Amino acid sequence: MGVFLLLYQFFGLPTFAEIIDYAQNAYNEHGYYVIIIASLMEGLLVVNWYFPGSIVIIMGTTFAITGHQNVPLTVALITLCFFLTSILNFLLLKFGLKSEIERMKQRLEKYGPKIILISYFHPHVGSLTATSAGILHLKTRTFLIYSLLAFLIWNSFWTLMIYLVGPQILKITNFKNLMIIIAVWIIVMGIIFYRKSKKKKALAEAVPIP
């Protein structure tokens, strides 16, 4: 993402303000069709890796408020699309693909379906959880109940946050702020990676050599 933003700025492509204006115009012109398509793309495994996380619920709700659209209907459509894609992600691994997502499998095995309620805060993480649930053959009924509940909770949370923040979020969305966020994220992930590597090294040294 950081490389993308740097190249984007280097080649003088449209500013974020222009992109937001374009997105808002598309939403005003095509309405809920834009929300449905964007939600399906963001919720589908692999496809959503190429999209910024949670952008649909944040921008969709913001545009609905500023454009005087039906906010409950917008959130309901996003929730429904995310729910449908989570089912597809679940089925992909339960009855189809055999790729392994070890970390999510381990978490799901450790915490059970409750991890769904936590991980669905972000579509990318949620899609991995859904596919891991498919690998482990989690009961379909249990998966559907927890997934629907998680989407309702998190989409309601993000909607409330947008109402509190309001259109101000559009004013602070710029290249500089995004680079700051990415820099902080890289630092945090670097610290986490370093600590995990150090822990693994210590465990390896503690194991006696036969």
Give a written overview of the molecule.
The chain starts with a helix and ends with a helix. The chain has helices at residues 2-10, 16-30, 32-43, 55-66, 71-95, 102-111, 114-119, 123-135, 140-165, 168-171, 175-206. It has one domain (12-167). Helices cover 78% and strands 0% of the residues. By secondary structure, it is mostly helical.
Core attributes:
single chain, 210 residues, mainly alpha, 78% helix, 0% strand, globular
Short characterization:
With 210 residues, the protein is an all-alpha fold. The chain has one domain (12-167).
Number of separate strands:
0
SSE order, as H and E? HHHHHHHHHHH
Q: Low-confidence parts, pLDDT < 50 over ≥5 residues?
A: none
Total of domains: 1
Name the helicity range. Answer: over 70%
Mean pLDDT: 72
Characterize the largest beta sheet: strand count, sense, and whether it forms a barrel.
Answer: none
Q: Could you give the topology of this structure?
A:
Elements: H1 2-10, H2 16-30, H3 32-43, H4 55-66, H5 71-95, H6 102-111, H7 114-119, H8 123-135, H9 140-165, H10 168-171, H11 175-206
Helix pairs in contact: 3-4, 3-5, 4-5, 4-9, 5-8, 5-9, 6-8
